[in-house]
């Protein structure tokens, strides 16, 4: 007696019940997988992109905005700070490293970041082809930028002012690609990296022209000092020699300078706390739907057992044991759960693919990463136990079955 084939035949004979059970269970699994995907992606971005950055220093404004703009490159910067003042921080004996970054331009929506070679080490980025930036107007591309725009070493392009692609305010200075980075699955994949001199040269081009025009009216050294003093950066990414410096250094910066010091982990943790309320609400809704799907499966299986009591009694007279009949019901529940899990997994994958395509089309940073295998196993085990519980309740009529009474009533 092939119990498996009988279970499949029972499912085919009641398509409406099967469809409803699969749909409700798939909906709950989709919500749970989707929420877990977003939560894991957010935490992953914090861990992978922060690295050892302990403090972000920039212009006065919103601390969260400063962190999002300087670390995740998802927002507009709060402004610029003097490079001369920033150098005082870089030279502070408590500072292990302070990486300056400066941006305000883009190429086809991808941000151009002026910085130093240390910036690459924050993301453990390595060159795939070409060389590092050595001169002004040279750039290194993140892996996603090179792949999406189909650029290679030796190509040149013109940057646009601002962080949004435009064809109105285009600079005249060509940037030359000298290297392409290996994929890191971090924010640097979607950045165009150059040195600070490139950013300054592009934005101070007109000032320098004016300076040369006024050369006969001003001392050359004085003009050079004015240009040097006028240099600005967007922010500093600071790492301290000792974690204790985080207790006093930020307060000193905020109180005694016109700059803002923000703790990236603290700010992103606050953001996570704000969003976790929504995550938690949707998670509870998903669990509620999961419970409802369990009831749906129970009702479906219970009705099958009650409606097919005569058929089950006949199977018993032909030698089937109670255990075999229980296995038949269990197989039906597991088939429904398997179909729902596969459909939910495909929904999540298709949904994420659509989101990723939208992000690529709008040149937004891809924050999503694949959900760990352990999360899928955990949810699979949870669904399995829910199905077992539903089956355990639905098989009560089988356990209490009186074969002679059922057969006599049918006659």
UniProtKB/TrEMBL annotation:
<feature type="transmembrane region" description="Helical">
    <location>
        <begin position="16"/>
        <end position="35"/>
    </location>
</feature>
<feature type="transmembrane region" description="Helical">
    <location>
        <begin position="334"/>
        <end position="356"/>
    </location>
</feature>
<dbReference type="Pfam" id="PF12704">
    <property type="entry name" value="MacB_PCD"/>
</dbReference>
<protein>
    <submittedName>
        <fullName>ABC transporter permease</fullName>
    </submittedName>
</protein>
<keyword id="KW-0472">Membrane</keyword>
<keyword id="KW-0812">Transmembrane</keyword>
<feature type="transmembrane region" description="Helical">
    <location>
        <begin position="284"/>
        <end position="302"/>
    </location>
</feature>
<dbReference type="InterPro" id="IPR050250">
    <property type="entry name" value="Macrolide_Exporter_MacB"/>
</dbReference>
<feature type="domain" description="MacB-like periplasmic core">
    <location>
        <begin position="18"/>
        <end position="197"/>
    </location>
</feature>
<dbReference type="InterPro" id="IPR025857">
    <property type="entry name" value="MacB_PCD"/>
</dbReference>
<feature type="transmembrane region" description="Helical">
    <location>
        <begin position="376"/>
        <end position="399"/>
    </location>
</feature>
<dbReference type="Pfam" id="PF02687">
    <property type="entry name" value="FtsX"/>
</dbReference>
<keyword id="KW-1133">Transmembrane helix</keyword>
<dbReference type="InterPro" id="IPR003838">
    <property type="entry name" value="ABC3_permease_C"/>
</dbReference>
<keyword id="KW-1003">Cell membrane</keyword>
<feature type="domain" description="ABC3 transporter permease C-terminal">
    <location>
        <begin position="285"/>
        <end position="403"/>
    </location>
</feature>
């Amino acid at each position: 007696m092939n119990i498996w084939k009988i279970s499949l035949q029972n499912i085919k004979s009641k398509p409406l019940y099967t469809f409803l059970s699969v749909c409700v269970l798939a909906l709950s699994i989709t919500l749970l997988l989707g929420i877990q995907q977003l939560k894991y992606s957010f935490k992953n971005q914090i861990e992978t992109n922060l690295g050892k950055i302990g403090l972000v220093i920039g212009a006065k404004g919103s601390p969260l905005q400063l962190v999002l703009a300087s670390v995740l490159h998802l927002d507009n910067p709060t402004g610029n700070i003097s490079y001369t003042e920033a150098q005082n921080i870089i030279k502070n004996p408590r500072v292990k490293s302070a990486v300056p970054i400066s941006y305000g331009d883009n190429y086809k929506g991808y941000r151009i970041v002026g910085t130093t070679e240390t910036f690459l080490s924050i993301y453990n980025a390595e060159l795939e082809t070409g060389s590092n930036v050595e001169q002004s107007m040279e750039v290194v591309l993140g892996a996603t930028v090179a792949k999406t725009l189909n650029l290679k070493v030796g190509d040149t392009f013109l940057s646009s002012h601002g962080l949004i692609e435009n064809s109105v305010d285009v600079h005249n200075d060509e940037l030359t690609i000298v290297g392409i980075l290996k994929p890191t699955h971090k924010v640097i994949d979607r950045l165009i990296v150059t040195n600070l001199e490139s950013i300054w040269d592009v934005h101070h081009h007109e000032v320098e022209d004016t300076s040369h025009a006024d050369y006969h009216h001003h001392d050359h050294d004085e003009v050079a000092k004015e240009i040097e003093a006028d240099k600005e950066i967007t922010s500093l990414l600071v790492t301290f020699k000792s974690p204790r410096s985080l207790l006093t250094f930020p307060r000193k910066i905020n109180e005694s300078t016109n700059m803002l010091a923000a703790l990236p982990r603290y700010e992103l943790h606050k953001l996570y706390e704000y969003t976790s309320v929504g995550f938690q609400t949707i998670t509870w809704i998903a669990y509620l739907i999961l419970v409802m799907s369990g009831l749906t499966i129970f009702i479906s299986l219970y009705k099958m057992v009650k409606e097919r009591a005569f058929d089950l009694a006949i199977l018993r007279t032909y030698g089937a044991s109670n255990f075999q009949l229980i296995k038949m019901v269990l197989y039906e529940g597991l088939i429904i759960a398997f179909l729902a899990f596969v459909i939910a997994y495909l929904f999540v994958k298709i949904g994420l693919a659509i989101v990723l395509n939208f992000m690529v089309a709008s040149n937004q940073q891809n924050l999503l990463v694949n959900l760990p295998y352990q999360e899928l196993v955990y949810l699979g085990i949870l669904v399995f136990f829910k199905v077992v519980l539903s089956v355990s309740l639905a098989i009560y009529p089988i356990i209490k079955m009186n074969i002679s009474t059922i057969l006599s009533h049918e006659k």
